[in-house]
Amino acid sequence: MIVMKFGGSSVANAERIRHVTDIIKMFLAERPVIVASAMGKTTDNLLAAAERAVNGQVCIEEICHLHYSVAAELQIETVEVQSLLDELKKLLEGISLIREVSARTKDYLVSFGERLSVRILAAHLSRVGVNARFFDAFDIGFVTNSDFTNAELLDDSYNRIGEAFAALQSDYVYTPIVTGFIAKDRNGAITTLGRGGSDLTASVIGAAIKAKEIMVWKDVDGILTTDPRVVPVAQPVKNISFEEASELAYFGAKVLHPRSMLPAMARNIPFRVKNSYNPSHPGTLILSRFDDKDELLRVLTLKKNVTLVDIVSTRMLGQYGFLARVFQIFDEQRISVDMLATSEVSISLTLDSRNGQLDGLKRELEKIANVGIKTGKTIITMVGNVRHSSEILEKTFKVLNTRGINVQMISQGASKVNISFIVDDAQGETCVQELHRVFFETAPAQV
Length: 447
Known about the structure:
It is built from 14 helices and 17 strands. The chain is α/β, with parallel strands linked by helices.
């Protein structure tokens, strides 16, 4: 069996659902389990409906119109859809009465997107001759803790999911269509899996059923050598390791969220990123390891709007408690670090701009050191064969020197698959464009 996950853009309307149906039919011999996201912008529309309800206005006209019109165009029954939309309206009426949306209520609210989507996709597949059944993920074993909006799957979920599909593995009599992103806690409350939740759903199912392969269908030809909005000639990467893909996702690549790959990685199940708009393209295959030969780099990423923090203190010299105290302060301020570089008397590190106000952090750090905070920085990450790091750095700094780009911090990750450095935001895209030209484009001009 294989697992195939389709994102919101892949099932955004009737035309896309027909196209996805054709793709599924191409892989029926592989006995697929299908995971589907909410249609198009449905999740955003659900959250907007909640905001209106808090202000006393209950309106789901846009959500109803999308799902009823798609059902009509696909010529399928709407009983299941109508039942869910009636339930959604009652929920919003309750929100309008209490004038607030808790994290628990928000998870219940956004679950309607995926639940509506799988019902429509399953009905259409059945109408065109593919015996399909829809499942809400919590009905096949997805159980989490009660950390609403970012719940963690409980370990016994894998056994439950495996049992739910055990009969299907020996006798594939229908194609299951499963909601991505959602689950339930032990008390029966609906939860969501946070960022990358639908990809994580597919990865968990793949791990639970020991799938031959997990396919995540996006709107790009796999993982590209860099962001195509920055370098239009960015090329698809044929193979990449789980470790490298995780680094990419963390440092700016938007194709996959790092934690979505963990279940597949733990069980050594191949994970493929494909393009639902271009299904004949092989996409990118993510493996535990592969022969990378003499390839230097696989991907370049950039992460903009980063904050650089320099911490300098002569008290660090020969002292064994200083770093512990620094990171205790970060823990107390609930601020996470992206990159880190240290010397005998200084620490340089980067923070995501979403950390917000840093006044408290600066105030506490200044009790033990001199602190400088600089905003408007970009992290450039080069992921590839760090065994050739000297050659990579030689080419990189030749490019940077020619372009007059100054590096303000550099770090090689402990994973040994990436080298990252900091430049000004204004120079970030130029840096990536020039490095891509040297490392990836054919017949590059002399630097």
